Amino acid sequence: MIQKSVIEELVNQFLSTKKNENLFLVQVDVKPANNIEVVLDKLGGVSIDECVELSRFIENNLDRETEDFDLEVSSAGLTSPLRILRQYQNTLNESVEVLVKGGKKEKGILKSVDELGIVLAVDRQVKLEGSKRKQTIIEDIAIKMEDILQTKRVIELKKREK
C-alpha cells in the first residue's frame, strides 16, 4: 500500500512551486486498495485546473507498474468542515456554525483564531435591567480548539430587492 507520507511529500513538493497561488493541503487519505484522496484549499477557492495539475504531478511521480492506485484530487467545498488552522484563518469575519463537545451548536461571526481556539461573535437574547422585552446583544465567546467537534461555514443567501 502506498504510504500517506509519500503522498504528503509529493503534494508539499508541488505546492512549494506554487507559492504565489496560496494553495495549501487540507487532507490526504490513503484507503485500502490504494484509493488516494487529496483535498486542497485556498482563499477564493481552488480551480479545476489546479486539481488536474496536482493530479498529473502525483501520477508522474508514482509508478503504476510497481503499485496500482486510484487518485482523486479535489478542493474543500464551501460546505465542508474546516479541518486545519489555515482554513479557519481564511474564514475570518464570516458566519460559521461550531459543534462543540456536549452537542451544543454555536452560530456566529468568526472574529479571531489561533492554535488554541477561536472567538465567535454571537447574537444573544437577553432581558436588560429595566426593559420589558428581551433584546439582542452581540457577545464574544471563546471556544478552545480541543472542544470543537466540527466547524462549518454558514452560507447566507440575501434576498434580492425588487
From TrEMBL:
What does the UniProt entry say about where the protein is found?
Cytoplasm
**Matches recorded under Gene3D superfamilies:** RimP-like superfamily, N-terminal
Q: Which GO terms describe its cellular component?
A: cytosol
In terms of superkingdom, the source organism counts as Bacteria
Example of a GO biological process term? ribosomal small subunit assembly
Family annotation (InterPro entries): Ribosome_maturation_RimP, RimP_N, RimP_N_sf
Q: Where is the Ribosome maturation factor RimP N-terminal domain?
A: 22-78
Q: Which UniProt keywords apply?
A: Cytoplasm, Ribosome biogenesis
Where is this protein primarily located?
cytoplasm
Protein family per UniProt: Belongs to the RimP family.
Say what the protein does: Required for maturation of 30S ribosomal subunits.
Q: Extract the NCBIfam families matched here.
A: PRK02001.1
Protein name stated in the entry: Ribosome maturation factor RimP
Q: Which gene encodes it?
A: rimP
